Amino acid sequence: MRITIKQELHREYLNSPLWKAIRQNALDHYGSICGKCGKEGRDVHHLTYKGWGGNEVMDDLQVLCRECHCATHAVEKVARRKGIKKRISVQALFGYLTGRQRAMIEKEFGGICYSVLFRKDQTGEAARTMAKKMLNVHEVYFNKHKSKGRSGRCGKVHY
């Protein structure tokens, strides 16, 4: 797969002394703790790219572990490909969560992660909110069911 000029420039920037200094400042500021799961993290993630290229501010950066960083970028990649603003189904939300993130949800809500995320009560809503924060997702919806005996009225649920 060929990379774009934009990707090439980004890779060059990430190898520059300027980014290495900004990255180190972020690690010094936030510590080496993942902002999503609380484990050790050394990746510095851009929450926005407004200051990209040397004008980053601390509020636009986040320390993540490798696993959470990859999961966050996977969601962003799907959103870009589909032309949507980080909007995914509950099933996809579950699929993008890392094992550690699923365990955190299970510990917090006392049930199997998949089941808790699909609950349509306050507990389910709180679990989806926690998962959305972990993956930086803006909107979650339930898929319409086309199985026998179902009315198919589940539709979109905005959270």
Q: Can you offer a commentary on this structure?
A:
With 159 residues, the chain is mainly alpha-helical. The protein folds into two domains: 5-64, no CATH class; 84-141, no CATH class. Helix content is 50%, strand content 9%. The protein has seven helices and four strands; from the N terminus they run ααββαβααααβ. It has helices spanning 5-14, 17-30, 66-82, 90-96, 99-109, 113-118, 122-135; strands at residues 43-46, 61-64, 87-89, 139-141. Strands 1-2 form a two-stranded antiparallel ribbon. Strands 3-4 form a two-stranded parallel sheet. It is globular, with a radius of gyration of 18 Å. The protein starts with a helix and ends in an 18-residue tail after the last strand.
Compose a concise summary of this entry.
The protein is mainly alpha-helical.
